[in-house]
Sequence to fold (759 residues):
Amino acid sequence: MRHESIVDAIGHTPLVRLRVPAPEGVEVYAKLELANAFAMKDRVARQVVTEARRSGALRPGAPIVESSSGTMALGLALVGTHLGHPVHIVTDPRIDPITLAKLRTLGCEVHVVSAMGDQGWQSARLDLLAELMTGLPGAFWPQQYSNPQNPAAYRGLAEELVDDLGTVDVVVGSVGSGGSLCGTSRALLERFPELTVVGVDAVGSVLFGQPDVPTRRQSGLGNSLYPDNIDYRLIDEVHWLSDDEAFAATRALAREQKIFAGNTSGSVYRVLTHLAAHAAPGTKLVGIMPDRGDRYVDTVYAADAAVSGTAAARAGATTGDAPVIATEPTPVRYGELVSTWSYARISRRERPLLFFVESNTTGTGMLALTTAVRLGLEPVLFVVDPARYQGLAETGARVVVCDTDDPEALRKAAEVAAGDREVAGVTTTSEYYLVQSAALAEGLGVAANPAAALAACRDKSATRRTLLAHGVRQPRFAEVRDPAEVEAAVAAVGLPCVVKPVDESGSHEVLWCEDVATVAEQARKLLAVTRNVRGQASAGTVLVEEYLTGPEFSAEMFRADGETYCVGITQRTVSELPYFVETGHLFPAVLPEETAAAMADTARRSLAAVGLERGPAHVELRLTADGPAVIEINARLAGGMIPELIRPATGIDLLDQQIRAAAGLPLNLTPERSRSAGIRFLIAADQGRLTAVEGVERAAAVAGVERVTVTAAAGRAVRPVREAYDRLGHVIAVGDGPEEVGGALDAALAELTVVVEAE
Fold:
């Protein structure tokens, strides 16, 4: 076949029948994507670059910048430089010398990061990429992990398979960015809805419910981040191989089939042969072989290849021990920790259902739904008004409209939605629907927190009464249901005091009061409110409580298997009185060990008092002269982006753990690292209309800053903070210690200016 250029020659790769042990009538094929000019991602590079040129996102002669350690870099080098674009590749020290030589010879500029970031090499590369983008005006970033043109590039591969085979029953592919397997299988499923899609991952990759092990040696598959291009709804089964198993399988592929390939192809070969040996007669199986083996001569193909460390460490091996090579995969429950070749079935047709009763409208709300999909569940969201949820259509959740405040209507809707399917659990990310979700779980016979325990947390006056009965230190308090009760309440509590609604969140209408008149005015105001911010009937009760002096903290807790875990203590910064808005956090808090232990113990006692049995809790405390005192118990994850600090600081993804706990999946609350992370919120100094937040790019470029996010749109009415809804955005920084984090946050905030036009 004649082509006008090297770019036109991409694709049209050979399909080879393999000689493997299998029942008679089973056909096993390898799609040799390694026969492209460089490798499989030549297809992606051509698709992404040509589409960007067509749309105008990539101007003639403009630079291309991408993070890659292998075949995507080579594909961009091929296509980009051929079409006249300077190509900058950001990579890490794991890049092999052959790929490095190819890139430089093709005319690329290669930038190698020197150390891992907060989430392994990938995050370090993305940090450097961001710096390059600011210095290269007009540069185009293909974003292979989230660009929809990545999976779209593999429609051609699927068409080639159909042309060559007519039908396909099983497709096996490695998963890194998610593009090849998901793009190919999505196109094939349009023709063959009974197709079985099998993903292959690495032990130590986070892609399919495993903890991250950044030291894994496999390349081309696995990841430390979650790419947007993985559509978990397409995959029926996932296999994990350790480094040693993948390398051994790659050598076996060369020895048995005469295909000299990379470890992605070797991993696919091992799984493909296993499936073929157990396939029914007449089955056609295809494995996608991504790249050639020349990059791996000093690793995979080294005669004296050392034990990788990934499988060996998990199996208890020490240096010099023989590699642990499984000859058959171990079946595991999805989410169970694996160390050697294992597999889990997550059939897309019969996945367990996870019910959500409403959710946060921002932050963790939509992310929780996509997390459920990633964990092999089918999320079902029960809502009154779907229009409240931006981005809902992209989550993969099924939406059921019903009255979520009517227990009977909610239960009936849930029973219809469940049909004869398994309901794994019921949860919510919304403070306002904790009790409803627990009551629904009880009605369906699904394990969950007792509704009474959640009610005791939701109603702050009930919390106070419960803690008092159990002797847990807290402020003095009084409940007010009529303005006439204010004077007696103040007499019981003393001045100054704090007045708050018992059923709101986010510091909404919480006020410090120094005299009876202010208390009375605030109480009358709150008692006049009949509906809360989610439209539910207000409790009709105001809490007047003692104002405790001392710094503020929160204990991030998790209940699982009868144990109460303290993930860590967060140091909180709040606005000036008379309001109590969180303006910054540091995790973990800088505290003497015994003080942190006392806070954790107080939080544990408070959770035991209210009867919380499972899942996350966020316990707010003040450190008084007499020790820690409980301010509030939130039977949910912390707000204020605290989970986003805990993740880079410890490696624990609390939202992931919440979904696991709700669905009864295995948990992993063991820290993987010990770093510091902090956040500062952007606030307006004056009242008026927001014109702009200036200096975002400069702030984002400060060393240690992980992200700068502006959540408020220009033109919005703003004011000095009175509640959490007044915050305009945030800066998050990560470092090896609190001083480093604090310095980064200070430097970033110095670059930011909130411009407000007075009204």
User: Anything to note?
Assistant: Residues 304-319 have pLDDT under 50 and may be disordered. The chain is about 30% helix and 20% strand.
